[in-house]
Design brief:
Strand content: over 45%
Shape: globular
Strand order of the largest sheet: 2-5-6-7-8-9-10-13-14-15-16-20-21-22-23-24
Helix content: under 10%
CATH superfamily: Porin
Number of helices: 1
Structural class: mainly beta
Number of domains: 1
Distance between the termini: 33 Å
CATH topology: Porin
CATH architecture: Beta Barrel
Number of strands: 24
């Protein structure tokens, strides 16, 4: 009986990984290691390529030339992932690739100029994930309860569904980024070194981790007025971080074989979940007032909900996908972090006008002490043919950020559509996004825009 349950569990695990894609895809690039198919190696390969037009923040230049609007091309992600189920209890996973390579940046570390390792060329290949895990209690061995333990460089970072989102099946063109609040500071591209536990009890799913954050060493600016102190990332010899995410799955159960949460199932499942999560690290940031350095804890909390529901007549294959989340971030006084995805611009030293506080290009205040409200929704339009050449999913998203560093909150939106040629396996996404541009901490922000066309394929 246990062997039967194990085989069923593995079949469900495998199918859930591609259930949001094409029905013709099957089990993907998979090599069975035994005749039963419960020992195997799976390979996943993908590329996300961007064509983009960006309104630049004032005082920007690209390639040494001042500009306020620029077209660009770039590899947002070029990745490979493989995992091996070498027994019913033991799995190993490796995930590596490159990110954010453009014509002008993202090249090999420490290289400049026009030569073989110059601007944007030979970008660094690195591991995103590398962990082993062992199933202590398989489904069915202890009633409704299951438990798996693992260790390595991992993505079980708690906090929210978006924090552990899959990059293969976003509803919008990309993550809202703020949901990776430590991105490339005390983590390695949203991962940390540590140990994790995951499992289920019926429809309740849990994920917990204990990690050693990567060291940060920014020096805080010394101020004389405590109200003007600004926390920066400096954790010295880092304390262990604790993270967790807890979710109740009211309708269809989702796989927890891998950490990557699906963004849109395209109506292949009927899902409604609510969740809550946290991340905490003691003494993660520092401020300096009158040359007295004070340490501050990083405490991050979130609650969210996700739904992916088929609509109407089954033959039309319509579906609605939606997500909403509330995030409360405490990094220390006035903490703010300005980020811009694949930012290609530098500061124009000769610009004499009013510059954006965030800096040049598409930089914006992305993460900070304060609150963020985020919501997205999309509608998979009805299928008018037995095998349509293209399926369309319009979507919209809204973000409201209220950061301590600014007197006024900001609002921004994304609107676009997915054009599915073969589910998420081959799709084109078009999206227009706005971002807030602050010229003063006390004034309301202005707005700039960006248009993106993404070409995605994964196998």
């Amino acid at each position: 009986m246990k062997k039967i349950l194990t085989f069923i569990g593995l079949a469900i695990m495998s199918s859930s990984l591609y259930s949001q894609g094409s029905p013709d895809y099957g089990s993907g690039l998979k090599v069975n290691l035994n005749s039963e198919g419960d020992k195997f190696i799976r390979f996943i390969l993908w590329d996300q390529f961007w064509l983009r037009n960006s309104q630049m923040n004032p005082g920007s230049m690209v390639g040494g030339e001042p500009t306020d609007n620029t077209w660009s091309l770039g590899n947002r992600r070029l990745r490979a992932l493989t995992y091996a189920q070498i027994s019913k209890r033991y799995m190993i996973l490796l995930h590596f690739g490159i990110n954010n390579q453009t014509f002008v940046n993202g090249g090999a570390p420490g290289t400049t100029g026009t030569g073989g390792n110059g601007n944007g060329k030979k970008t660094q290949l690195f591991f995103h994930d590398a962990w082993n895990e062992y199933a202590v209690l398989l489904p069915g061995e202890a009633g409704k309860f299951s438990l798996t333990l693992g260790a390595g460089l991992h993505y079980y970072m708690g906090l929210s569904r978006m924090t552990m989102g899959s990059t293969l099946n976003f509803l919008t063109v990309d993550s809202p980024i703020f949901s990776w609040p430590l991105i490339d500071n005390s983590d390695q591209f949203a991962r940390q070194l540590g140990m994790f536990a995951k499992g289920k009890y019926g429809k309740f799913e849990y994920r917990l981790s204990l990690n050693k954050p990567f060291a940060t060493d920014m020096v805080p600016v010394n101020v004389t007025d405590p109200s003007r102190a600004v926390a920066v990332d400096n954790n010295g010899n880092p304390s262990f971080s604790k993270a967790g995410y807890f979710e109740y799955q009211f309708l269809d159960e989702e796989s927890n074989a891998l950490p990557f949460k699906v963004g849109s199932y395209l109506g292949t499942k009927k899902v409604f979940n609510i969740g809550a999560g946290f991340y905490h690290q003691a003494d993660g940031t520092r401020t300096s007032v009158n040359s007295n350095v004070e340490k501050h804890d990083i405490t991050l909390l979130a609650v969210d909900a996700f739904a992916d529901i088929p609509l109407g007549n089954a033959k039309n294959k319509m579906a609605v996908s939606a997500y909403a989340g509330y995030y409360n971030y405490q990094f220390g006084p006035n903490y703010i972090r300005n980020l811009g995805t694949m930012n290609i611009a530098a500061t124009d030293p000769n610009f004499t006008g009013q510059k954006a506080i965030a800096g040049p290009g598409n930089l914006q205040p992305m993460i900070g002490t304060g609150n963020v409200i985020y919501a997205q929704a999309g509608l998979l339009l009805p299928n008018q043919a037995e095998k349509p050449k293209v399926r369309i999913q319009p979507f919209a998203a809204y973000t409201r950020k209220s950061f301590e560093a600014f007197d006024k909150s900001s609002s921004q939106f994304d609107v676009g559509a997915n054009w599915f040629i073969d589910g998420h396996h081959a799709k084109i996404t078009t999206q227009y996004s706005t971002r807030p541009v602050y010229y003063s901490p006390t004034d309301s922000p202005k707005s700039k825009g960006e248009f993106i066309v993404q070409f995605q394929i994964y196998l």
